């Protein structure tokens, strides 16, 4: 009798373990719920703000700014956090991919610097994983406007910091008007003060001012085209103008070919994707951590001409991008025309609590649109 009982008990336990294991495999999330807390495998709110996604070998990797609690939570006190997922709903904490340097307060990425909007791409030729980010060395506010570069042999890291640069020093963009390449530089007044300049960017010739030392590079993203060519897209010229710069074949440097777009449009938070041989851009206006109305644009070549398409968001709160700011537009693997808008709902008073706004992208002719959803699934795309 006792033997029968213990067989039954062990059978039941085994059954329970199998049920629990299959639940675990399925994951706790089966839908996106924008704006809600989003817990990782350890039940901790995902900490990857201003992020981007790398798809590599069957797995999505999400890299973003690790924010901290309390005052100065937007400073880089820890580094770049990485998470992995197969289904995009459930994310496993892969730890800190790039750590800030604690031992040397003069280091480019010293603890307390500003390290924003990290993006990672994989170089198929060199097999390296390359990370770019917007870097502001410690204690200098946002005046540095530099690009940081790091490298790893593994998607999840650890990444080794290589260097930071002001891109394209000594080179004019190939579409620079003569008024800039031949014209004078006006230094006074050429300082950005919250979304505007004292005069149109071209009359100040910020491009010319930064020609020798390298161009300013703040909000940024990376884009790898179908032919493997990679581009760095960043807010430049005191945020007034967007630059698109080609990277070298190893993705570790600038190929000295770049162009400038949307002068005086003060576009931040750029995200680029490609569908049916057309390039689409989404960006925000320039209002610090506060949300604003997004913009979108389309082009047949990444080098333009770019045509603005207006605010892609529709419905309630569309004028504030649903209280978020773009950071990346994620192509779904294996689906030709499916993309997810990834945005940040910043909470500067408690940066670590910042929420993620992921929403489906829909297409209407040449335009794309984004509409709010409390909850949605990949099948809705
Ligand atoms: C807006 C940018 O998009 C963010 O990445 C960050 O730099 C904030 N400005 C800082 O105010």
Descriptive labels:
4 helices; globular; mainly beta; binds (2R,3S,4R,5S)-2-(hydroxymethyl)piperidine-3,4,5-triol; four-stranded antiparallel sheet; 21 strands; single chain; 381 residues; five-stranded mixed sheet
Q: Sum up the overall morphology in one term.
A: globular
Give me the number of helical elements: 4
Q: In angstroms, what is the radius of gyration?
A: 22 Å
Report helical residue fraction: under 10%
Widest beta sheet: strand line-up: 17-21-20-19-18
Q: How would you characterize this protein structure?
A:
Strands 17-21-20-19-18 form a five-stranded mixed sheet, with no helix packed on it. Strands 1-2-3-4 form a four-stranded antiparallel sheet, with no helix packed on it. Residues 14-25 have low confidence and may be disordered. The protein is globular, with a radius of gyration of 22 Å. The chain is mainly beta. It contains four helices and 21 strands. The protein has a domain at 276-374. (2R,3S,4R,5S)-2-(hydroxymethyl)piperidine-3,4,5-triol (DGJ) is lined by residues 50, 116-117, 219, 268-269, 288-289, 325. Residues 50, 116-117, 219, 268-269, 288-289, 325 line the site of (2R,3S,4R,5S)-2-(hydroxymethyl)piperidine-3,4,5-triol.
How are the secondary structure elements laid out?
Layout: H1 2-26, E1 49-56, E2 59-65, E3 79-85, E4 92-99, E5 114-122, E6 129-136, E7 146-152, E8 160-165, H2 178-181, H3 201-204, H4 206-209, E9 220-224, E10 230-236, E11 241-247, E12 254-261, E13 268-275, E14 278-284, E15 295-299, E16 307-308, E17 313-314, E18 325-331, E19 339-345, E20 355-364, E21 367-371
Parallel strand pairs: 17-21
Antiparallel strand pairs: 1-2, 2-3, 3-4, 5-6, 6-7, 7-8, 9-10, 10-11, 11-12, 13-14, 14-15, 15-16, 18-19, 19-20, 20-21
The structure holds (2R,3S,4R,5S)-2-(hydroxymethyl)piperidine-3,4,5-triol (DGJ).
């Amino acid at each position: 009798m006792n033997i029968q009982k213990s067989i039954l008990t062990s059978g039941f336990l085994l059954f329970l373990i199998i049920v629990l294991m299959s639940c675990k495999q399925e994951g706790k999330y089966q839908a996106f719920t924008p704006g809600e807390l989003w817990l990782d495998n350890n039940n901790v709110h995902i900490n990857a703000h201003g992020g981007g996604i790398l798809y590599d070998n069957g797995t999505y990797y999400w890299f973003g700014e690790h924010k901290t609690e309390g005052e100065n939570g937007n400073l880089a006190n820890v580094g770049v956090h990485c998470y992995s997922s197969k289904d995009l709903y459930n994310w496993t904490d892969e730890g800190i991919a790039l750590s800030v340097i604690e031992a040397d307060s003069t280091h480019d990425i010293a603890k307390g610097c500003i390290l924003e909007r990290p993006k990672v791409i994989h170089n198929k030729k060199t097999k390296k994983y390359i990370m770019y980010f917007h870097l502001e060395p410690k204690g200098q506010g946002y005046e540095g406007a530099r690009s940081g570069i790091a490298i790893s042999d593994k998607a999840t890291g650890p990444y080794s910091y290589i260097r930071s640069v002001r891109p394209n020093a000594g080179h004019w963009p190939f579409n620079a008007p003569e008024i800039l390449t031949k014209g004078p530089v006006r230094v006074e007044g050429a300082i950005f003060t919250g979304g505007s300049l004292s005069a149109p960017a071209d009359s100040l010739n910020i491009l010319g001012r930064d020609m020798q030392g390298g161009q300013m590079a703040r909000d940024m993203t990376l884009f790898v085209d179908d032919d493997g060519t990679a581009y760095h897209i960043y807010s430049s010229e005191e945020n007034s103008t967007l630059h698109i710069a080609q990277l070298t074949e190893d993705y570790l440097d600038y190929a000295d070919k770049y162009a400038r777009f949307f002068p005086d449009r003060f576009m931040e938070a750029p995200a680029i994707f490609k569908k049916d041989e057309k390039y689409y851009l989404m960006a925000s206006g320039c209002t610090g951590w506060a949300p604003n109305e997004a913009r979108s644009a389309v082009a047949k070549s990444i080098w333009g001409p770019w045509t603005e398409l207006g605010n892609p968001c529709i419905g309630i709160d569309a004028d504030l991008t649903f209280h978020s700011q773009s950071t990346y537009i994620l192509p779904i693997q294996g689906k030709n025309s499916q993309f997810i808008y990834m945005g940040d709902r910043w909470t500067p008073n408690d940066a670590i609590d910042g929420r993620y706004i992921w929403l489906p992208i829909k297409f209407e002719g040449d335009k794309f649109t984004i509409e709010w959803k409390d909850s949605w699934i990949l099948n809705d795309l």
